[in-house]
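Minutes, project huddle
Topic: does the predicted pose make sense with zinc ion bound?
PN asked that the exact inputs be recorded in the minutes so nobody has to dig through chat later. Recorded below.
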Amino acid sequence: MGLYHYPKAQHKRAFRPRVFKNYKTYKRWLQQEFNRVCVYCREPDTLSSNLNFGVDHYRPKSISRFASLACDYTNLYYCCGNCNSRKKADWPADETNGPYVVNPCDHVMADHIRFNVVSGEMDARSAWGEHMRVLLQLNDPASVATRKNQLLIVKYCGDEIGRLKRQLTALRKKLNRGEMTRQQHDAEVVAVEADINSAIQLLNAVTGATPLPTLSKHKMALQLHP
Ligand SMILES: [Zn+2]
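Predicted holo structure (tokens), as shared on screen:
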């Protein structure tokens, strides 16, 4: 899925961690469950330090009838600091008609809100999407500017990787034509491949694709309560 785009299908949870007393313990699972992206504004946690990212209680824990869901994994979402502080204890008085902030497990998010690659803004497609856009201030100028900048970096990285790969092809041809020695060729290939790796790392950081360590189901089961 492209950077900042909302899912077009409901997410089925991949993990079932055991019950912990502190909901913050679930952050490491939620980070992988939702691919390092805030489920509400689609910002990847790799753009800067992810210290600002945390655990959102979809059904707010401050509402007494939801207090029992405080450590229920299915009620928890990976969320950036902005969205978490803006969403707060949002919950509709009318549970039948909403408006709800949509989440990727219960809703097809793209039916409610879409990323506009031209404007860098999030466009509402339903009343619930509009509620979410306003409440979470999804189009605040800083966020829109960040999205546009990140899209530019993705484009530049893609162009640069293409250019470097063409350079590798040109080096191979020069070697085949006897225009350079094998030693010269290999040394230049090492340098170009290092540049390709740097561009890929930057691309991964911008898109949230930087790999995380695998979570062991075995260790998960042995994890002690904090
Ligand atoms: Zn967010």
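Observations noted during the meeting:
- Helices lie at 27-33, 81-87, 127-135, 141-176, 182-207, 217-222.
- Residues 118 and 226 are 46 Å apart (CA to CA).
No decisions taken; revisit at the next huddle.
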